[in-house]
Amino acid sequence: MAPEVQDGLRKDWDTYFMDIAYMVSTRSRCPRRHVGTVLVQGKKLLGTAYNGAPMGVADCSEDGCMIVEELEMQVEDGVERMIKKQRCIRTIHAEQNLLLFTDRIDREGSTVYVTDQPCWTCANMLANSGVKEVVYHRAYLKDSEKVISLMQVKGIVFRHLSAYAPPVQAGMDVIS
């Protein structure tokens, strides 16, 4: 379903806040993936964050990515197999930064808009943060099933804006 336009002139709230999340993501210096997130209470924006190295520390564009490889057991069609996953450990994820720089009282019952589906670690943090809803655009298949299950167990509304189109100014090719 395409995002609806209200009054023929204005974007709907989901599009409006996801556009902001994408524009926030342009602050990221990560060469692999720019992620942005916003915290919303009702229709009031309470905070923004993006992925990157800790403040005052060289980022990936300066010192390169710190890639680690992990093995994870997955079951497909009843067959167990080891899957190799790579991730950068230099970067603090956008969701983590959002939780670091917003107050718990503001998060209670709020909505988080994030450009990318949260990873397992971020989903765990969001599950304990007080938010009632997480809205994302780009799927993150590496942790998708676990994250969806966690959100269901916690009663957090978890919505994928599949028909959404990011602002042209925020575009980047994502490296998986």
TrEMBL record:
PANTHER family given in the database record: DEOXYCYTIDYLATE DEAMINASE, DEOXYCYTIDYLATE DEAMINASE-RELATED
Residues annotated as the enzyme's active site: 95 (proton donor)
GO molecular function term, any single one: zinc ion binding
Organism whose genome encodes this protein: Paenibacillus rhizovicinus
Record's keyword annotation contains Methyltransferase: no
Cofactor: Zn(2+)
GO annotations of cellular component type: cytoplasm
A biological process from GO: pyrimidine nucleotide metabolic process
Domain of life: Bacteria
Keyword annotations of the record: Hydrolase, Metal-binding, Zinc
Presence of keyword Ligase: no
PROSITE patterns given in the database record: CYT_DCMP_DEAMINASES_1, CYT_DCMP_DEAMINASES_2
Family: Belongs to the cytidine and deoxycytidylate deaminase family.
Domain CMP/dCMP-type deaminase: 12-158
Matching Pfam families: dCMP_cyt_deam_1
Protein name: CMP deaminase
Annotated residues for binding of Zn(2+): 93, 119, 122
